[in-house]
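Hi support team,

I'm filing this because I wasn't sure whether my run with adenosine monophosphate finished correctly. The job status page said complete, but I'd like someone to confirm that the output block is well-formed before I use it downstream. Pasting the exact inputs I used:
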Amino acid sequence: MNVLIIGSGGREHALAWKVKQSPRLTKLYIAPGNAGTNACGENIALDIRNHTSVIHFCEEKKIDLVIVGPEIPLAEGLVDSLSAQGIRCFGPKQAAAQIEASKVFAKDFMARHHIPTARYATFTQLDDAMRYLRSVNHPIVIKASGLAAGKGVILPDTFAEAQSTLENIFVDKTFGDAGNEVVIEERLSGQEVSLMAFTDGTSVVPMLPAQDHKRLLDHDEGPNTGGMGAYAPAPIFTADMMNEAIKFVLQPAVDGMRMEGRPFVGVLYAGLILTDNGLSVLEFNCRFGDPETQAVLPLLETDLLDIADACINGNLANVNIRWKKSASVCVVLASKGYPEKAESGKLITFSPLPENAVCFHAGTKTESDQVLTAGGRVLGLTAWANDIASAIDTVYSNMSSISFEGMNYRGDIGYRALKGVK
Ligand code: AMP
Ligand code: GLY
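And here is everything the job wrote out:
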């Protein structure tokens, strides 16, 4: 198979690394890719917003499968454009990607299908939102409905903060059109679990549950980021919880989307919170999570091309998806200044890693045969072992293999799994 992966982050390097292991692979392209994906296949400088140019590339290179990594091209209908030309894609069409691209859609969808989620209300006007704010007496979360690169969720601690957040969104347009609609929902507490699942639109098969670490600093302090590390499986997520998630979240979501004429094919990501009253959905994403994918894919034994193929063919139920009985940890190495204003252009040096580790690239580029930093989250150093403690040990003992000026990372990724912290 000739395969094209769309995207340029750590998730796409992990996808490329996994696809490269497939005996079915003939040639792999990544558009646009990064300095790491180049070692798995050929990077292509395609404008992925220009659907015609992606179609031409696929026709010219006889691409058998396109795997779309990020949410923006999915929300922009890249899969619709390619499928219309008979090009096979792993990822949802635009109508199904709404489950991530519109939080208003996602919340109303969950309400329609009785999927557990926080109580909420939606607004298009500042006045109405302010009136609601005055009427509620529980802690809240404010969410811009549209895609906002993970920045559109605000957890205000005071009424004044909530008011200024709403003014920023509705009046100052901090999130542009993504803030035309706003969700205000009840703030829940509990541990979070990222549960990704493969689906062909009818059957749904969960991957190993993972935990992300969104805050910049150790002990979950500092600002929110795109994710500073992840590990899998998350021991807090028991087999009972997995059954509950399939029965009350994943299967109803896949069935609901199909029944509403928006069949979801690809990876459905449920961001779950484990509250004292049971699990609840914080968000759905229409794609693989990042950095979760960097931790989860090294544990997948089954050929990813077989799974993608089966999802597109509608026969996922016939594939036996197997996982290594191991644990995996991914620690993100970030540039100085991340997440506000990250430095870039710094030289990165690498030393060899053991066989049970891999360094996934995210914000990197190649210039005159040197690898330079090119963004906030630069690399994801990932290791796997029989148990989580050994995986954590391997990852941190190999940190000195990588170096660039201003490199920083959390020292406590996976700590919840170790201590069984509640
Ligand atoms: P989302 O993008 O909707 O998952 O939100 C990003 C992050 O905000 C989540 O990972 C949670 O940490 C937090 N969050 C979102 N919704 C809620 C909620 N209802 N209660 C508590 N925390 C939330
Ligand atoms: N790690 C969270 C996400 O991929 O959205």
